[in-house]
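We give its fold:
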Amino acid sequence: MDHHGLKGLTVVVTGAATGMGRAEATELAARGAHVWIADVAEDPGRELARTLTDRGGHAEFFHLDVTDPSAWAGLRDALTEGPGVVHGLVNNAGVSHRHGIVDTADEDWQRVLDINLSGIFYGMKYLAPLLKAAGSASVVNVSSIAGMTGYFAAGYAASKWGVRGISKTGALEFAPWGVRVNSLHPGLVDTPLLWSGAPEFVHESLRSVPAGRVGTPEEITDAVLFLLSDASRYVTGTELVVDGGMTSAGLYHRLLSGLGDQEA
């Protein structure tokens, strides 16, 4: 398949009812993939599946709590009884938490790690037989720029660095099966998750983005499609950063912008 050749493939997208996952599922269905919308959000998930089906796509909803191994086992069984293979797994489900070590409650630490990291581990573990059966498949584990640099939020940073690491383990372990595993590292993306905290955080963060704006869910989707497609057939165990230059040049962009303001 080429970058647009996703027709007929079975792709599971977690956290697909809203935000980036919704954009990914929508575009995959439009490209002819059979999308499994996996989410705890029952109503919006089922509504999206109906909408995509009404548009002529192939989509179905599966209620999935990514922190529950038995739920993943249920999804595996449903997929085994259905298509019997999984060509793509997009581990997209995640939560944000913006507190440091001292201020992070024990229960919040566990919740963030359970959703952001354990959910990805379970996804790869339980769907591994179906990925292997496909003969050629791709796993996209959604991390963050918080997994590429020092970050102030304890649980979030730890979970996203963990996603980066376990993706490399998956790439090593799954390579003999023809299954690629990569981590995707979005920057500031215009989703409800980004705006779930104080808007001042976003506005201040934009000072470190050379592109000067937040990204769109559709721009992240383009990166996901690339990693799912045969266009990335020799790409595995690596990180794809989509952040408008924030991690590579954000520090000096901020400095130069500040100097420019002083000169003005």
